Q: What sequence folds into this?
């Protein structure tokens, strides 16, 4: 229902670099609910004061200058900070009302529902097939026929099937950068997550590969909730429904710069009529 | 204006003399290796001239009858080395994985330190430990030698494997974790495939060590000649052990036979190392995606 209404909105106003002022339906159910989230690396507070809601079947973009904490916040969504010694998340980060950092919650279960695509394409040194099948396998799918089907549909969804169907057993490392990134997307959706987090997924790709990934994101949003960190403002404007602008400010407690959420609104609003001077300065290229 | 002489600096001469020094050093290594091979082979020829190929094919070693067959010692060398690997490889990989993926930072430092200490214990100490302690539970045998050799090669395999495992890119590990893999599943999907070549190399290096180890094996293997048996508890002998144990009382022909054994061992370790290099290089190419 929600997905359809967003799809309908798309056909009325196709995405452009500078979309006209339209609003995104607020009615979409909330997937993540953040209240005063902070992330620490040891004693260093990298991000503070993040309060926002991420909505289902929408693409939410995080933009902002380097060091503003957008990737740090993204990695809090699937407990990726657990692997970094000394990293700690404070505040409330709820996923469908469940506190993700409750001691009872397992990071493994969280990551099975909340997938991630990384900045640098990172296929593991195995075959194309095994890269895709790995996720379903650790989730208990053992049957060969079922795995074959998942591999095919995932690769088709990631618009990669036609390019690799004849060499599924070849090493994934032999693919081009753009193909590797689409493989990583296929691998992520093969486990049928609800959310796909993307950390600057196009920063290592050329413009043509980037365009393909963006097209893919628009197709995938009817099935997944997508949160994307991007350095590229045009990309945020082109693909996202909502945009969060992060920036840095001096943390009076530690005298170091710390990231914070400045403004969060419908993408069209952020890019045409931002509510905060800092956002406007960034959007118009006066800083960052 | 620049005059040509200014461009012809003294630096070139310094560079040339360093180059000469480096080439000289490299050549010396090859020369020494070549001389060892030539002189040893020359002395081994006495026994080959006397006995022909039966030196390599016979399993009878009886100095009293002037019969020298190398097979029992080749068997002893390979058998004890394989026993050592069977024990040492799982232990080493377990310790290396524990250090790289599981241990908290403080413990990790101490473990690395302990493993490095184990690597510098002189082999005679291990041998004597085998004689004094291990022999109270195990008779002197292939198995006893295998156990002592295993303890000796665990540090080298562990520390090489640890270094290889640590080179696994964080991105590869995160790839698996982000798909909902547990730590163990992540190791199987990212760390092991990435490190396979290096681990094989580490194991082969351990094998080379175990094959060539002399004094520890000589003390616990039992020094029984002529045993080609799968019975791990039987006393046996290995190539380096028999050389060390019987050189003192050997006559000319027997010394030639022992030297021939040494040359054969030398050749076997070279082959093991060549195989290791090939495997490592092939798996590195595969990891880069060019195969």
A:
């Amino acid at each position: 229902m929600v997905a359809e209404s967003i799809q309908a909105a798309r056909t009325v106003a196709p995405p452009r670099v500078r979309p006209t002022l339209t609003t995104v339906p607020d009615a979409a159910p909330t997937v993540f609910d953040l209240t005063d989230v902070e992330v620490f690396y040891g004693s260093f507070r990298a991000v503070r004061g993040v309060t926002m809601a991420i909505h289902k079947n929408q693409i939410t973009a995080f933009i902002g200058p380097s060091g503003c904490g957008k990737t740090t916040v993204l990695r809090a969504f699937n407990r990726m900070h657990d692997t970094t010694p000394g990293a700690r998340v404070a505040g409330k980060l709820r996923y469908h009302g469940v506190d993700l950092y409750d001691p009872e919650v397992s990071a493994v279960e969280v990551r099975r529902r909340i997938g991630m695509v990384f900045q640098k394409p990172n296929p593991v040194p195995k075959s194309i097939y095994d890269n895709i099948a790995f996720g379903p396998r650790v989730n208990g799918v053992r049957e060969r026929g079922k795995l074959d089907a998942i591999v095919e549909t995932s690769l088709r969804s990631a618009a990669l099937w036609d390019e690799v169907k004849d060499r599924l057993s070849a090493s994934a490392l032999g693919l081009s950068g753009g193909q590797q990134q689409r493989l990583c997307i296929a691998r992520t959706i093969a486990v049928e997550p609800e959310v796909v987090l993307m950390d600057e997924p196009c920063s290592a790709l050329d413009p043509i590969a980037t365009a393909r990934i963006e097209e893919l994101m628009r197709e995938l949003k009817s099935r997944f909730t997508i949160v994307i960190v991007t350095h590229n403002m045009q990309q945020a404007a082109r693909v996202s429904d909502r945009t969060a602008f992060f920036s840095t400010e001096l943390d009076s407690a530690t005298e170091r710069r710390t990231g914070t959420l400045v403004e969060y609104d419908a993408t069209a609003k952020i890019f045409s009529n931002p509510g905060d001077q800092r956002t406007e300065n960034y959007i118009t290229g006066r800083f960052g | 204006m620049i005059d040509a002489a200014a461009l012809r600096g003294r630096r070139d001469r310094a560079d040339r003399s360093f180059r000469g020094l480096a080439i000289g050093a490299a050549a010396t290594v090859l020369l020494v290796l070549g001389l060892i091979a030539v002189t040893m082979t020359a002395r081994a020829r006495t026994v080959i001239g006397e006995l022909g190929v039966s030196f390599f094919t016979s399993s009878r070693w009886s100095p009293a009858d002037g019969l020298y067959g190398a097979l029992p010692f080749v068997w002893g060398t390979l058998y004890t080395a394989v026993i050592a690997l069977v024990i040492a490889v799982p232990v080493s990989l377990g310790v290396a994985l524990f250090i790289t993926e599981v241990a908290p930072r403080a413990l990790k430092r101490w473990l690395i330190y302990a493993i490095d200490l184990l690597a510098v214990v002189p082999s005679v100490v291990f041998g004597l430990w085998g004689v004094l302690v291990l022999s109270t539970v195990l008779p002197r045998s292939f198995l006893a030698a295998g156990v002592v050799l295993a303890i000796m090669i665990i540090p080298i395999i562990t520390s090489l494997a640890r270094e290889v495992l640590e080179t696994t890119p964080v991105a590869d590990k995160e790839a698996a974790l982000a798909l909902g893999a547990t730590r163990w599943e992540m190791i199987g999907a990212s760390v092991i495939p990435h490190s396979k070549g290096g681990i094989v190399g580490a194991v082969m290096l351990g094998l080379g060590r175990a094959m060539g180890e002399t004094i520890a094996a000589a003390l616990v293997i039992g020094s029984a000649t002529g045993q080609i048996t799968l019975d791990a508890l039987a006393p046996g002998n290995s190539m380096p052990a028999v050389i060390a144990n019987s050189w003192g009382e050997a006559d000319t022909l027997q010394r030639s036979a022992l030297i021939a054994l040494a040359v054969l061992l030398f050749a076997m370790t070279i082959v093991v190392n060549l195989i290791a290099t090939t495997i490592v290089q092939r798996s590195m190419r595969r990891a880069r995606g060019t195969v």
